[in-house]
Amino acid sequence: MENKFSQKVNENGHKIRIGLPKGSLQEHTFELFKKAGYNIRLSDERSYFPTVDDPEIECILLRAQEIAIYVEDGALDAGITGKDWILENGAKVVEVAELVYAKQGLRPVKWVLAVPENSDIKSVKDLEGKRIATEVINLTKVYLEKNKVNAKVEFSWGATEIKAPLLVDAIVDVTETGNSLRANKLRVIDTLLESSTRLIANEESWKDNWKRKKLEELAMLIKGVLLAETKVGLMMNVRKKDIEQILKVLPALQNPTISELSNKEWCDVITIVDKKIVRGLIPLLKEKGAEGIVEYPLNKIIE
Length: 303
Hints:
By secondary structure, the protein is α/β, with parallel strands linked by helices. The chain has helices at 26-36, 64-72, 83-89, 137-146, 179-183, 203-207, 209-228, 243-249, 278-287; strands at residues 16-22, 40-41, 51-52, 57-63, 78-82, 94-99, 109-116, 131-134, 152-155, 170-175, 186-195, 197-201, 231-239, 257-260, 266-274, 291-296. The longest helix is centred in the C-terminal third of the chain and has 20 residues, at 209-228.
């Protein structure tokens, strides 16, 4: 029987094999690929071999923790994983692009040292001889060595935040919002690492001109999607006599497109602004004379 992950080739004989993160990042990753123009589908929820509507790409779902290992040894040409797992595994890979997104939004995550709220531990120095649970054994040991602290570090298979103080004195855990730590009455002492998602490539695959170009194009499209998620488009009708006031209101770094309308007294203004400022900007534009203001979502912005 043919292996489901056998190397199929397209009419040009080219194929690139990419590891995608299974679990918390899976849904967001699939959505990013879709907006970038690649539709990824699973035959069922238990499958690890999604199909993609590009005959030059073959995907496999893996835990983000192990993707860098398989990219380094060449089992995968490329993968999407966190900077934290690249460092934790000491993987020698090419970082093609930083893709800042996580489970709950477009932000990096942090690996933090945390203790119970009522713990006497106030700093890393107080961990001498103590017990720490974490998924990132190597990162934690490097951190302790840097601070000249001797403590026992043990691997946590999950639910790390519930282990202190019953089982361990402290934990090193990943957080995006800090909500889970607070819910479990934990206090953050220090941040070991701020990490974001990366598109990585095998060093030999990166030397292949075709594979490199394919990955660069993929990175460009996904970065364009991520940038678009922070922006919105605005278009409005403005009397020519009000244009100067409207331009003063719009962000200084933007270059709006201004087009004359059939009514010579009016023009059309189109621009792109940060999503976080638009709710305050629209009333101001209306106040300065803009009419027919339309806000619309963006799919990609290619810089």
